[in-house]
Amino acid sequence: MDLSSPVVRSEDIYRTYWLYWRLLGVGGEHLILQVLDILITIFVTFWYPIHLIVGLFYETTLGDVCKGLPITAACFFASFKFVCFRWKLEEIRSIEGLLLELDQRALTEEERAFFDRNTQREANFVWKSFIVAYGLSNAAAIATVLFGKGHKLLYPAWFPYDVQASEQIYWLSVSYQIAGVSLQILQNLANDSYPPITFCVVAGHVRLLSMRLNRMGYKRELPKETVVRELVDNIEDHRKLMKIVQLLRSTMHLSQLGQFISSGINISMTLVNILFFADNNFARTYYGVYFMAMLLELFPCCYYGTLISVELNRLTDSIFSSNWVGMDRGYCRTLLIFMQLTLAKVEIRAGGMIGISLNAFFATIRMAYSFFTLAMSLRK
């Protein structure tokens, strides 16, 4: 049968994700890529957040500390998440392998059309949004240096020499900070785009499974053996989805905990900087863009985390909606056991404590708003 909708290919969604890793030199077999990986690991992943953290201790005013804290926290947790995800790359590849197997099960026009018009389109929109938000945030930060007053570093930091000793040394230091933060943003694109696009793809495959379950038994011309085979195949699909959820729990256990801590610090401190310490239009623009980037960093992951739970909860109704009337007792018993399995609540937790859902997102926003109102009262 000629299907007008394209074949479901989850790997197409991950092409840009794996490009981030290759640009960072990870997994390359060539000597140049291996050297690049070592240099980025030393001078960006580890040294960049260290030079920002040490720089905070040399600041003499509260304003400078508050200005440096958001980017210091962001860079520290970017490196933390990057190390966590790099440690779990084999599990990430295993998840993608299971998704490719589930892709092969989408055989009807309805399933392929849904995946193409919803899942794939939304996943592509998410990773493109991250590129735009992070790119604008970086451009706004660079603009504060290029168009600001005096010879100021991009961010408060410590160097083992006098940054203001000469024009060349100053611009060399600024160039390192610009290059370093750009590479940290590239690392963060790998860190932050993976959870939402993977949650989106998993939620899409749960919906496709729900479609297949709904259709079971309604083609009267099919023999009962074929219907039983469909049920077994669908149970196997559910097993693969639960295996993916199990791998996601392991992959995101520490990285997403760091994400929530980082977002809480950055959202709160960015509001303080906008209120008290943004002394020019470029600074206000930078903090405003940075604030929106922090929200974007957190919201898609929480939204699609909730969507996975919602879609999985619908499976029980889909199983009951299939045509089981007239089937033998063994089939109905298997169907009933399968329904019982789908009743279990499925949730992915960061650090085993914080559910990756919209509840966690709104809790973070409420915390930031409370901090904002406290800051406003102090300002008066």
Automatic annotation (TrEMBL):
GO cellular component: plasma membrane
UniProt key word Oxidoreductase: no
GO MF annotations in UniProt: odorant binding; olfactory receptor activity
Pfam families: 7tm_6
Lipid bilayer topology: Multi-pass membrane protein
InterPro entries: 7tm6_olfct_rcpt
TM annotation in the entry: 31-57, 125-148, 257-278, 290-310, 354-378
Keywords of the record: Cell membrane, Membrane, Olfaction, Receptor, Sensory transduction, Transducer, Transmembrane, Transmembrane helix
Localisation per UniProt entry: Cell membrane
GO biological process per UniProt: signal transduction
Keyword Cell membrane: yes
Protein family according to the UniProt entry: Belongs to the insect chemoreceptor superfamily. Heteromeric odorant receptor channel (TC 1.A.69) family.
Protein name as it appears in the record: Odorant receptor
Source organism per UniProt: Drosophila pseudoobscura pseudoobscura (Fruit fly)
Organism lineage: Eukaryota, Metazoa, Ecdysozoa, Arthropoda, Hexapoda
